[in-house]
Amino acid sequence: MKRARILPILLAFVCVLWPSVVRSQRADPPFDFYARGPYRESIPRPRQILGYDVGDFHTNYAMMERVIGAIAAAAPDRVRVLDIGLTNEHRMMHLVVISAPENIAQLERIKADIARLADPRKISREEAERIIATRPAIVWLAYTIHGNESASFEAMMQVVYQLAASNEPATLDILRNLVVLIVTGENPDGHERFVTWYNSVAIGDPEPTAAEHREPWSVWGRVNHYRFDLNRDNLASTQIETRHLQRAYLEWNPQVVVDHHGQPSQFFFPPAALPINPNLPTEQVGKWLTMFGRANASAFDAQRWDYYVRDVFDLFYPGYWDSWPSLNGAIGMTYETDGGGWKGLRWKRDDETIVTLRSAIAKHFIASMMTLETTARHREARLRDYYEFRRSAIEEGKTGPMRRFVILPGNDPGRAAELVDVLLRAGIEVARADEPFRATRAHAYAADGDAPMTKQFPAGAYIVDLAQPQKRLAKALLEPETPLDRAFVAEQLARFRRNERRGKNAPKEEYGFYDITAWSLPLAFGVEAYWTEDAAPVASTPLALPRGEESSIAPAGSVTGRASVAYLIPYESNGAASLIARLLQEDYKLAVATRTLNAGGRDWPRGTVVVRVSRNPDSIHERIAQLARETGAQVYAVNSGFAENGDTGIGSETVVSLKRPRIVVIADEPVNQTSYGALWWTLDRYGVEFTPMTIDGLKRAELDRYNVIILPDGSPSRYFAAFGRDGVEMLRGWAQRGGTLVCIKGAAVFAALKDVNLTSSRLVGSEEEEREEEEEEAEEKPQPTPTPAEAPKKPAKTQTASAEQGRAEQTEKMEGAPPILPPIASPSAKPGRVPEAVPGAIMRATIDRTTPLTYGYEMDTLPVLIESAYFFRPSKGGVNAVIFSPDEKQRLHVAGFIWPDNTEKLLRGAAYVIDEPTGRGHVILYAEDPNFRGFWRATTRLFFNSFLFQAVL
Predict the structure, then answer these.
(1) Contacts for 531 with CB less than 8 Å, ≥ 6 apart
(2) Would you tell me the crossing angle of helices 240-252 and 413-425 to the nearest 10 degrees?
(3) Keywords on this record (predicted)?
(4) What residues does CATH 3.40.50.880 cover in the chain?
(5) Going by fewer Cβ within 10 Å, which terminus of the chain is more open, N or C?
(6) Whole-angstrom Cα distance, residue 225 to residue 203?
(7) Is 819 a residue whose pLDDT tops 80?
């Protein structure tokens, strides 16, 4: 009876509430991708080939190639598919060229005319106007640079179909006025990892906590094979995908570029946020960004779609795929759609409405088409402004305060050549001086001041004159510092001051920095460089990088002859580090001079590596010659062991044998993917072998088979959670037995946690630092003399006993209370005592030249990148190999944004590299990532020293 009465009530309740539940989880309405016809029936639609409709499933790379190939085969009058190069995982990257039949028939002539327009030195104004009046503009649409931003990949196929198949008047107008270049996938390898995983687990569950919205560490498809973020790589073009794309880009010289991304809360399109790179002509760029933004807004308003502009997506860092094209003269833009990727097939927003993969594809499709329509309507204006951008760049290079850059080969000509290769790949003109020359107003990058000097440069110096079409890009990459917009800086400082006034539990305002604020390539590569205010003519030879070559100018290494006593490898180049590592891996016997070495009639600096003929097989002669050529290292043959002077010769006790590095690199959930990737790529390119391991794998491994464990940058708290108390003690015991534990950035913070205690260093502003300061202050206070009754009843402990007790207490603490984990700032710290995170600034560090960790660095200071709030107090028990000078007379700041009355003040006296002896082994900390994005080459050997010279630390 009761059940009969309750059932109607429940039904009524459901009938009342169900519509509101449905409305609260309402999905975006389906979009019709085939409403812009009529379509040519001979052209297959993507779904006919794929077997599923748009947005119902994620398309893998091979299926996409089938779609593009079928469309191109059916529409040869409009479509060409060009192969532009293979990825690391052997997937071919494609550029699809689409235009009207009359343009397709003369593609090479169009390309040649646009190339002439790109170099105003080669044509008259009248000839430029003829090209502008008669030639189509070129638009570059690129998709899926982040492989897990999947909606753009699907949208690309729909755009290709629309342009190839539709006879709609607006589409035909696009084809007549434009040559459209479509990059089918900027990151094929990352995309393949993501879609293979997602398709295998997805059920279309919109709940944010569902498994399909959580990519495993090993999958993370945002990054490429080497786990690089390709949308940061244009700065130094370290990755093969970037090099393929840059080469194709410079072959076609487009006027409009769109890079398609995902997944913010709503769709984003320009205008871009501040800061804008000051090398861009503000008025021209702002005009076009606003024009495209308003056009997209009109289309989105008609669909009742949400979107935003400006906010955080800026045009400052020159490595993005919108800022790099912009510095080439195009209008470069980022579009970010709101679905797909890790949001999957369906995603529940914070208001419980649903965004679908299909709707996210539709938004990219509409934005792509509106961009093409807008460019077609303003074809002549866009071509004219492109020409003017390049023409005015040349004039600025002739008359501006900065006229020329000079790069010297120095002690590491290979590294200087690598920098020149970066410039050549970017289309920047570089020449090599055929004879010595002089500048009367030169500025040294290494100088602490701005006063010009007279400088004599040698033959062989590399010259970049700014009176060239690529002036703006060249200056953006090479200038010592790129200034930020004043209004932007003022707003960040205002937020900083407001944050300082907020209580410890109050939320803090976010800052507007989207990426690093300093990147000057001569400083990053650690080469001797100058910029000059004058640019007198110099007899020189223009340089070029032939297609497909890694380098056309890098010097080959060599050996001076066949040694009867020893070969000497001066440790002055990154190539020398590679040579040493490879010889050790092949079990050749090497030693290192720990002091200045005298041999062969001259002195060699500390860190010079000695390869004794008597201790190696005869194969050493041919092998060292071959590896020297491959690595670019210089090797010197010595035929007598007699030292003419000094106390160190080839046979001295201070020439110490090296150990073969057997390296483990942690590859697991706590690790920052791009830090691991930069490390992987760096070791790989220098031929250094290593074993990637998960933390669980490390716990099960025979650890004593390895003598180096590297923890890349990552989350300190997640490192602690993954290792646990037993894992930390495992690491400590292994190091005490002679292992070298290398901790980078966040991993160094993990090592410094009091409940880990792998170092005596503490973080500036941390609770641990504050507590230890209080304890030290208490110990320094005068204590009353104890009466006999109060006197200690036990003898004082020795230093060793105290250390053992401290370790026992530490172990007991770890087994009890939870560890102190980041955020590291002490809640009771006063404003100005806790570092604010630095958004990527270059600082000057001071080198201790008495430790093997700094072999190969004989200068006093070194430019390093600071990109965090991790400032380490000097170790109390170890060696602080690289520090930030406590002397206030020495300027620390070199370039980039720092916080006033905070960054420099709190960084002074802090350590950048620490060697903490632990039993027979070592724990080595790097406060920042020495391999940052693969382009911070100034610290490569500093990092290599931690495993090459572990025997002499």
Answers:
(1) 402, 404, 405, 406, 442, 443, 445, 478, 479, 480
(2) 50
(3) Carboxypeptidase, Hydrolase, Protease
(4) 663-771+814-952
(5) N
(6) 27
(7) no
Which tokens is 534 given?
Answer: 């004058």
Query: If you search the block for the tokens 């979009």, which residue do you land on?
Result: 31
Asked if 734 contacts 704 with a C-beta cutoff of 8 angstroms, the reply is: yes
Q: What would the two tokens of residue 953 be? A: 């630390």
Q: Between 61-74 and 188-201, two packed helices, what is the crossing angle to 10 degrees?
A: 110
- pLDDT score recorded for residue 5: 52
Where do you find CATH 3.40.630.10 in the chain?
Answer: 46-394
Q: What's at 641, amino acid-wise?
A: G
pLDDT per residue as tens digits for the range 341-380: 999 999 999 999 999 999 999 999 999 999 999 999 999 9
> Using CA atoms, how far apart are residues 312 and 326, in angstroms rounded to an integer?
18
Tell me how far apart the alpha carbons of residues 270 and 285 are, in angstroms, rounded to a whole number: 11
Of the chain, the percentage scoring pLDDT greater than 90 comes to 87
CB-count exposure of residue 19 (10 Å: 0-12, 13-18, 19+): exposed
Question: For 46-394, which CATH superfamily applies?
Answer: Zn peptidases (3.40.630.10)
Residue 487: count other Cβ atoms within 10 Å of its Cβ.
9
Cα(304)–Cα(640) distance, integer angstroms: 83
**Tokens found for residue 532:** 């000059």
Question: First vs last Cα of the chain: how many Å apart?
Answer: 86
Residue 407 predicted with pLDDT over 50: yes
| 870: region left, alpha or beta (phi > 0 left; psi from -120 to 50 alpha) | beta
Rounded CA separation 614/23 (Å): 83
Task: Give the CA distances from residue 586 to residues 623, 627, 689, in Å, rounded to whole numbers and listed in that order.
Answer: 10, 11, 11
d(CA 455, CA 196): 58
Provide CB contacts within 8 A for 953, sequence distance 6+.
Answer: 740, 851, 852, 853, 915, 917, 922, 924
Question: In the CATH scheme, what architecture does the domain 663-771+814-952 have?
Answer: 3-Layer(aba) Sandwich (3.40)
- What are the distances in angstroms from CA 67 to CA 98, 510, 940? 15, 43, 44
Distance CA 255, CA 118 (A): 10
Token look-up 């180096």 returns 708
DSSP state of 235: G
Other beta carbons within 10 Å of 267: 25
d(CA 902, CA 2): 71
Contact 707, 740 (CB under 8 A): yes
pLDDT of residue 556: 85
Main-chain phi, psi angles of 136, to 5 degrees: -70, 150
Helices (H), 166-215: 169-177, 188-201
Q: What is the DSSP string of 204-225?
A: ----TTSGGG---TTT-TTS-T
- The Cα–Cα gap between 139 and 246 comes to 15
Q: What angle do CA 191, 195, 197 make, to 5 degrees?
A: 120
pLDDT at 822: 40
